Protein backbone atom coordinates (compact mmCIF):
# COMPACT_ATOMS: atom_id res chain seq x y z
CA UNK A 1 0.00 0.00 0.00
CA UNK A 2 3.02 2.28 0.46
CA UNK A 3 3.12 3.39 -3.16
CA UNK A 4 5.75 5.65 -4.65
CA UNK A 5 3.11 8.37 -4.80
CA UNK A 6 2.46 8.10 -1.06
CA UNK A 7 6.18 8.05 -0.29
CA UNK A 8 6.59 11.22 -2.33
CA UNK A 9 3.65 12.91 -0.57
CA UNK A 10 5.12 12.16 2.86
CA UNK A 11 8.62 13.24 1.86
CA UNK A 12 7.39 16.47 0.31
CA UNK A 13 5.22 17.27 3.34
CA UNK A 14 8.17 16.79 5.67
CA UNK A 15 10.56 18.81 3.49
CA UNK A 16 8.07 21.64 3.09
CA UNK A 17 7.42 21.75 6.86
CA UNK A 18 11.14 21.98 7.62
CA UNK A 19 11.70 24.65 5.01
CA UNK A 20 8.80 26.89 6.03
CA UNK A 21 9.56 26.56 9.74
CA UNK A 22 13.30 27.01 9.25
CA UNK A 23 14.12 23.69 10.91
CA UNK A 24 16.97 21.33 10.10
CA UNK A 25 16.32 17.71 9.23
CA UNK A 26 16.99 15.25 12.07
CA UNK A 27 18.06 11.68 11.44
CA UNK A 28 15.98 10.26 14.33
CA UNK A 29 12.89 12.10 13.10
CA UNK A 30 13.37 10.84 9.53
CA UNK A 31 13.85 7.31 10.86
CA UNK A 32 10.62 7.56 12.86
CA UNK A 33 8.68 8.77 9.82
CA UNK A 34 10.07 5.97 7.65
CA UNK A 35 9.32 3.24 10.20
CA UNK A 36 5.73 4.39 10.78
CA UNK A 37 5.13 4.67 7.04
CA UNK A 38 6.59 1.19 6.47
CA UNK A 39 4.41 -0.43 9.14
CA UNK A 40 1.16 1.30 8.14
CA UNK A 41 1.94 0.88 4.46
CA UNK A 42 2.32 -2.85 5.03
CA UNK A 43 -1.31 -3.31 6.07
CA UNK A 44 -3.08 -5.65 3.66
CA UNK A 45 -6.79 -6.30 3.17
CA UNK A 46 -8.61 -9.30 1.72
CA UNK A 47 -11.24 -9.33 -1.02
CA UNK A 48 -13.92 -8.30 1.51
CA UNK A 49 -11.90 -5.29 2.61
CA UNK A 50 -11.03 -6.82 6.01
CA UNK A 51 -7.50 -6.39 7.32
CA UNK A 52 -5.21 -9.38 6.95
CA UNK A 53 -3.69 -10.19 10.38
CA UNK A 54 -0.08 -9.18 10.78
CA UNK A 55 2.43 -7.29 12.94
CA UNK A 56 1.08 -3.85 12.14
CA UNK A 57 2.27 -2.22 15.35
CA UNK A 58 5.11 0.26 15.61
CA UNK A 59 6.62 1.13 19.00
CA UNK A 60 8.90 4.17 19.15
CA UNK A 61 10.93 5.53 22.06
CA UNK A 62 12.39 8.96 21.41
CA UNK A 63 13.74 11.67 23.66
CA UNK A 64 12.44 15.18 24.23
CA UNK A 65 13.14 17.44 21.27
CA UNK A 66 12.93 14.69 18.66
CA UNK A 67 9.76 16.15 17.18
CA UNK A 68 7.61 13.07 17.67
CA UNK A 69 4.29 14.77 16.92
CA UNK A 70 5.53 16.06 13.57
CA UNK A 71 7.00 12.66 12.71
CA UNK A 72 3.92 10.54 13.39
CA UNK A 73 1.52 13.12 11.96
CA UNK A 74 3.41 13.60 8.70
CA UNK A 75 3.70 9.83 8.26
CA UNK A 76 0.26 8.69 9.44
CA UNK A 77 -2.11 11.38 8.14
CA UNK A 78 -1.54 10.75 4.39
CA UNK A 79 -1.58 6.97 4.91
CA UNK A 80 -4.79 7.04 6.95
CA UNK A 81 -6.54 9.01 4.21
CA UNK A 82 -5.22 6.64 1.54
CA UNK A 83 -6.46 3.64 3.52
CA UNK A 84 -9.84 5.25 4.18
CA UNK A 85 -9.26 5.16 7.94
CA UNK A 86 -9.69 7.66 10.76
CA UNK A 87 -6.55 8.58 12.67
CA UNK A 88 -7.03 8.67 16.47
CA UNK A 89 -4.23 10.29 18.46
CA UNK A 90 -4.58 9.48 22.16
CA UNK A 91 -2.54 11.08 24.95
CA UNK A 92 -2.37 10.60 28.71
CA UNK A 93 -2.51 14.28 29.67
CA UNK A 94 -4.87 17.15 28.90
CA UNK A 95 -1.93 19.50 28.30
CA UNK A 96 -0.58 17.39 25.43
CA UNK A 97 -4.06 16.96 23.91
CA UNK A 98 -4.54 20.70 23.82
CA UNK A 99 -1.03 21.29 22.47
CA UNK A 100 -1.63 18.80 19.63
CA UNK A 101 -5.08 20.03 18.62
CA UNK A 102 -4.55 23.77 19.11
CA UNK A 103 -0.87 24.18 18.18
CA UNK A 104 0.85 21.20 16.57
CA UNK A 105 -1.77 20.01 14.06
CA UNK A 106 -2.68 23.53 12.83
CA UNK A 107 1.04 24.21 12.43
CA UNK A 108 1.60 20.95 10.51
CA UNK A 109 -1.46 21.50 8.31
CA UNK A 110 -0.32 25.03 7.44
CA UNK A 111 3.36 24.41 6.81
CA UNK A 112 3.37 20.81 5.54
CA UNK A 113 0.54 21.46 3.10
CA UNK A 114 -1.57 18.51 4.31
CA UNK A 115 -5.30 18.84 3.62
CA UNK A 116 -6.63 17.32 6.84
CA UNK A 117 -9.32 18.12 9.37
CA UNK A 118 -9.15 17.33 13.08
CA UNK A 119 -11.14 17.66 16.29
CA UNK A 120 -10.83 17.06 20.03
CA UNK A 121 -12.97 14.24 21.49
CA UNK A 122 -14.01 14.19 25.14
CA UNK A 123 -16.21 12.03 27.33
CA UNK A 124 -19.77 12.82 28.37
CA UNK A 125 -18.68 14.20 31.74
CA UNK A 126 -16.96 17.13 30.00
CA UNK A 127 -20.28 18.30 28.51
CA UNK A 128 -23.34 19.86 30.07
CA UNK A 129 -26.42 17.62 30.30
CA UNK A 130 -29.50 19.74 29.54
CA UNK A 131 -31.79 17.34 31.41
CA UNK A 132 -29.67 17.61 34.55
CA UNK A 133 -29.45 21.40 34.21
CA UNK A 134 -33.22 21.55 33.99
CA UNK A 135 -33.49 19.40 37.11
CA UNK A 136 -31.03 21.64 38.99
CA UNK A 137 -32.86 24.83 38.05
CA UNK A 138 -36.23 23.38 39.10
CA UNK A 139 -34.89 22.62 42.56
CA UNK A 140 -34.84 26.33 43.50
CA UNK A 141 -32.51 25.78 46.41
CA UNK A 142 -34.30 22.73 47.79
CA UNK A 143 -34.56 19.10 46.88
CA UNK A 144 -36.52 18.31 43.78
CA UNK A 145 -39.54 16.19 44.60
CA UNK A 146 -39.10 13.95 41.56
CA UNK A 147 -38.02 10.44 42.50
CA UNK A 148 -34.45 10.01 41.31
CA UNK A 149 -32.81 6.84 40.08
CA UNK A 150 -29.34 7.88 41.27
CA UNK A 151 -28.16 9.58 44.45
CA UNK A 152 -26.53 12.50 42.66
CA UNK A 153 -29.80 13.32 40.92
CA UNK A 154 -31.08 14.68 44.23
CA UNK A 155 -30.06 18.28 43.70
CA UNK A 156 -29.59 20.38 46.81
CA UNK A 157 -28.39 23.54 45.09
CA UNK A 158 -26.80 26.32 47.08
CA UNK A 159 -27.28 29.91 45.97
CA UNK A 160 -23.88 30.26 44.24
CA UNK A 161 -24.53 27.14 42.16
CA UNK A 162 -28.00 28.37 41.25
CA UNK A 163 -26.54 31.67 40.02
CA UNK A 164 -23.97 29.72 37.97
CA UNK A 165 -26.65 27.55 36.37
CA UNK A 166 -28.71 30.61 35.46
CA UNK A 167 -25.62 32.16 33.85
CA UNK A 168 -24.99 28.98 31.87
CA UNK A 169 -28.58 28.90 30.65
CA UNK A 170 -28.30 32.50 29.43
CA UNK A 171 -24.98 31.77 27.67
CA UNK A 172 -26.53 28.77 25.93
CA UNK A 173 -29.49 30.87 24.83
CA UNK A 174 -27.18 33.52 23.36
CA UNK A 175 -25.05 30.89 21.63
CA UNK A 176 -21.92 32.15 23.39
CA UNK A 177 -21.17 28.78 25.02
CA UNK A 178 -21.09 25.26 23.58
CA UNK A 179 -21.79 23.30 26.77
CA UNK A 180 -18.15 22.21 27.10
CA UNK A 181 -16.84 22.54 30.65
CA UNK A 182 -13.38 23.48 29.37
CA UNK A 183 -14.70 26.42 27.36
CA UNK A 184 -16.62 28.01 30.26
CA UNK A 185 -14.77 31.27 31.04
CA UNK A 186 -14.25 30.47 34.73
CA UNK A 187 -13.19 27.41 36.68
CA UNK A 188 -16.28 25.37 37.58
CA UNK A 189 -16.47 23.80 41.03
CA UNK A 190 -16.47 20.00 40.76
CA UNK A 191 -19.60 19.53 42.88
CA UNK A 192 -21.46 22.15 40.86
CA UNK A 193 -20.47 20.54 37.54
CA UNK A 194 -21.26 17.01 38.67
CA UNK A 195 -24.88 18.04 39.23
CA UNK A 196 -25.31 19.04 35.60
CA UNK A 197 -23.27 16.40 33.75
CA UNK A 198 -23.83 12.70 33.21
CA UNK A 199 -22.12 9.47 32.13
CA UNK A 200 -23.03 6.65 29.74
CA UNK A 201 -24.88 4.73 32.49
CA UNK A 202 -27.29 7.55 33.34
CA UNK A 203 -27.61 9.02 29.84
CA UNK A 204 -30.93 7.98 28.24
CA UNK A 205 -29.77 8.72 24.70
CA UNK A 206 -32.53 9.09 22.16
CA UNK A 207 -35.17 8.74 24.88
CA UNK A 208 -34.07 12.06 26.38
CA UNK A 209 -36.31 15.04 25.62
CA UNK A 210 -33.16 17.12 24.99
CA UNK A 211 -31.46 14.63 22.63
CA UNK A 212 -31.72 16.83 19.52
CA UNK A 213 -29.92 19.68 21.33
CA UNK A 214 -27.48 17.53 23.33
CA UNK A 215 -23.99 19.04 23.28
CA UNK A 216 -22.24 15.70 23.73
CA UNK A 217 -24.01 14.11 20.75
CA UNK A 218 -23.40 17.22 18.65
CA UNK A 219 -19.69 16.95 19.43
CA UNK A 220 -19.74 13.23 18.64
CA UNK A 221 -21.25 13.93 15.22
CA UNK A 222 -18.45 16.42 14.51
CA UNK A 223 -15.66 13.96 15.28
CA UNK A 224 -17.06 11.49 12.75
CA UNK A 225 -16.68 14.12 10.02
CA UNK A 226 -12.97 14.79 10.51
CA UNK A 227 -9.83 12.95 9.39
CA UNK A 228 -8.03 13.00 12.74
CA UNK A 229 -9.42 12.77 16.27
CA UNK A 230 -7.38 13.82 19.31
CA UNK A 231 -8.49 12.30 22.60
CA UNK A 232 -7.13 10.63 25.74
CA UNK A 233 -6.18 7.05 26.60
CA UNK A 234 -9.17 6.66 28.93
CA UNK A 235 -11.74 7.51 26.28
CA UNK A 236 -10.19 5.09 23.77
CA UNK A 237 -10.13 2.29 26.34
CA UNK A 238 -13.68 3.05 27.51
CA UNK A 239 -14.88 2.95 23.90
CA UNK A 240 -13.15 -0.40 23.33
CA UNK A 241 -14.62 -1.81 26.57
CA UNK A 242 -18.09 -0.89 25.23
CA UNK A 243 -17.40 -2.86 22.06
CA UNK A 244 -15.87 -0.07 19.95
CA UNK A 245 -17.72 2.56 17.95
CA UNK A 246 -19.79 3.77 20.92
CA UNK A 247 -18.10 7.19 20.93
CA UNK A 248 -15.15 6.94 18.57
CA UNK A 249 -15.11 5.38 15.08
CA UNK A 250 -15.16 1.59 14.85
CA UNK A 251 -11.75 0.02 15.60
CA UNK A 252 -11.60 -1.62 12.17
CA UNK A 253 -11.95 1.83 10.60
CA UNK A 254 -9.27 3.39 12.79
CA UNK A 255 -5.51 3.76 13.05
CA UNK A 256 -4.47 4.49 16.64
CA UNK A 257 -1.46 6.48 17.83
CA UNK A 258 -0.87 6.31 21.59
CA UNK A 259 1.36 9.22 22.53
CA UNK A 260 2.82 9.10 26.07
CA UNK A 261 2.50 5.34 25.67
CA UNK A 262 4.36 4.59 28.92
CA UNK A 263 1.10 5.46 30.72
CA UNK A 264 -0.94 2.98 28.69
CA UNK A 265 -0.31 -0.25 30.70
CA UNK A 266 -1.63 1.27 33.92
CA UNK A 267 -4.59 2.81 32.09
CA UNK A 268 -5.42 -0.53 30.46
CA UNK A 269 -5.21 -2.37 33.77
CA UNK A 270 -7.57 0.14 35.41
CA UNK A 271 -10.12 -0.35 32.63
CA UNK A 272 -9.89 -4.08 31.97
CA UNK A 273 -9.00 -5.72 35.27
CA UNK A 274 -11.00 -7.13 38.15
CA UNK A 275 -9.60 -7.40 41.63
CA UNK A 276 -10.36 -8.66 45.11
CA UNK A 277 -8.70 -7.36 48.25
CA UNK A 278 -8.11 -10.73 49.90
CA UNK A 279 -6.82 -9.47 53.24
CA UNK A 280 -9.58 -6.94 53.92
CA UNK A 281 -12.21 -9.33 52.55
CA UNK A 282 -11.10 -12.02 55.00
CA UNK A 283 -11.27 -9.50 57.86
CA UNK A 284 -14.76 -8.40 56.82
CA UNK A 285 -15.96 -12.00 56.57
CA UNK A 286 -14.60 -12.78 60.04
CA UNK A 287 -16.68 -9.91 61.46
CA UNK A 288 -19.85 -10.83 59.60
CA UNK A 289 -21.28 -13.50 61.98
CA UNK A 290 -20.99 -11.15 64.96
CA UNK A 291 -22.62 -8.36 62.94
CA UNK A 292 -25.52 -10.63 62.01
CA UNK A 293 -25.92 -11.74 65.64
CA UNK A 294 -26.12 -8.09 66.70
CA UNK A 295 -28.68 -7.37 63.98
CA UNK A 296 -30.78 -10.31 65.07
CA UNK A 297 -30.69 -9.14 68.68
CA UNK A 298 -31.73 -5.61 67.78
CA UNK A 299 -34.29 -6.44 65.10
CA UNK A 300 -35.82 -9.57 66.58
CA UNK A 301 -37.80 -11.79 64.24
CA UNK A 302 -37.24 -10.20 60.84
CA UNK A 303 -37.86 -12.68 58.04
CA UNK A 304 -35.66 -15.71 58.77
CA UNK A 305 -32.58 -13.80 59.92
CA UNK A 306 -32.07 -15.45 63.36
CA UNK A 307 -32.53 -18.95 61.97
CA UNK A 308 -30.35 -18.30 58.94
CA UNK A 309 -27.30 -17.15 60.90
CA UNK A 310 -25.74 -20.65 61.16
CA UNK A 311 -26.09 -21.02 57.39
CA UNK A 312 -24.35 -17.69 56.86
CA UNK A 313 -21.59 -18.78 59.22
CA UNK A 314 -21.02 -21.91 57.13
CA UNK A 315 -20.79 -19.80 53.97
CA UNK A 316 -18.31 -17.47 55.67
CA UNK A 317 -16.10 -20.42 56.62
CA UNK A 318 -16.26 -21.83 53.09
CA UNK A 319 -15.30 -18.49 51.50
CA UNK A 320 -12.53 -18.05 54.06
CA UNK A 321 -11.06 -21.43 53.11
CA UNK A 322 -11.18 -20.50 49.41
CA UNK A 323 -9.38 -17.23 50.12
CA UNK A 324 -6.72 -19.10 52.08
CA UNK A 325 -6.25 -21.49 49.15
CA UNK A 326 -5.92 -18.57 46.75
CA UNK A 327 -3.46 -16.80 49.03
CA UNK A 328 -1.34 -19.95 49.13
CA UNK A 329 -1.18 -19.99 45.32
CA UNK A 330 0.34 -16.50 45.34
CA UNK A 331 2.95 -17.31 48.01
CA UNK A 332 5.55 -18.69 45.54
CA UNK A 333 5.10 -15.62 43.30
CA UNK A 334 6.41 -12.94 45.63
CA UNK A 335 9.00 -12.04 42.99
CA UNK A 336 6.17 -10.92 40.66
CA UNK A 337 4.65 -8.63 43.29
CA UNK A 338 4.90 -4.90 43.91
CA UNK A 339 3.53 -2.58 46.56
CA UNK A 340 3.08 -2.88 50.32
CA UNK A 341 1.85 -6.05 51.97
CA UNK A 342 -1.70 -4.74 52.33
CA UNK A 343 -1.77 -3.48 48.70
CA UNK A 344 0.38 -6.07 46.97
CA UNK A 345 -0.16 -6.34 43.21
CA UNK A 346 0.92 -9.14 40.89
CA UNK A 347 1.73 -8.64 37.23
CA UNK A 348 2.72 -11.37 34.81
CA UNK A 349 4.71 -11.27 31.59
CA UNK A 350 2.39 -10.65 28.60
CA UNK A 351 -0.55 -10.94 30.98
CA UNK A 352 -0.24 -14.73 31.21
CA UNK A 353 -1.60 -15.62 34.65
CA UNK A 354 -0.52 -19.09 35.93
CA UNK A 355 -3.11 -21.77 35.21
CA UNK A 356 -3.40 -22.77 38.88
CA UNK A 357 -4.66 -19.27 39.70
CA UNK A 358 -7.03 -18.91 36.73
CA UNK A 359 -8.50 -22.36 37.36
CA UNK A 360 -9.07 -21.62 41.04
CA UNK A 361 -10.59 -18.20 40.30
CA UNK A 362 -12.92 -19.51 37.57
CA UNK A 363 -14.02 -22.51 39.63
CA UNK A 364 -15.27 -20.34 42.46
Detail the topology: elements first, then pairings.
Elements: H1 4-21, H2 27-41, H3 68-83, E1 86-91, H4 94-112, E2 118-120, H5 130-139, H6 159-174, H7 190-194, H8 215-223, E3 228-232, H9 233-241, E4 254-258, H10 264-272, H11 278-299, H12 305-330, E5 337-338, E6 345-346, H13 355-363
Parallel strand pairs: 1-3, 1-4, 2-3
Antiparallel strand pairs: 5-6
Helix pairs in contact: 1-3, 1-4, 2-3, 3-4, 9-10, 11-12
What does this structure look like?
By secondary structure, this protein is of the alpha/beta class. It folds into three domains: 171 residues, P-loop containing nucleotide triphosphate hydrolases (Rossmann fold, 3-Layer(aba) Sandwich), CATH 3.40.50; 86 residues, no CATH class; 90 residues, no CATH class. It is 50% helix and 6% strand. The chain has 13 helices and six strands. It has a four-stranded parallel β-sheet. A two-stranded antiparallel ribbon has the order 5-6. The two termini are 50 Å apart.
Strand order of the largest sheet: 2-3-1-4
CATH C-level of the largest domain: Alpha Beta
On the 0-100 scale, what is the average pLDDT?
85
Low-confidence parts, pLDDT < 50 over ≥5 residues? Answer: 142-155
The CATH superfamily of the largest domain is identified as P-loop containing nucleotide triphosphate hydrolases
| Helix content class | 40-55%
Strand content: 5-15%
Amino acid sequence: MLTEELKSEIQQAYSRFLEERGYASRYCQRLMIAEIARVLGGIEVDDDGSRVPGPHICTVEAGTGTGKTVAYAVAALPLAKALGKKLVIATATVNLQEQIVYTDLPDIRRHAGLDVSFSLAKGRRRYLCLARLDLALQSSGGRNQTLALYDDEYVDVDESHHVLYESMLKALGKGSWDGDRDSWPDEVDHSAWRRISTDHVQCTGRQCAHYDNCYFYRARERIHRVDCIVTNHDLVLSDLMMGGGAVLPLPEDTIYIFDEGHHLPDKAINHASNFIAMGSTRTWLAQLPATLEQMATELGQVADLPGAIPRYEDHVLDIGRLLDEMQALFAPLEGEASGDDDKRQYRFVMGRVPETITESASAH
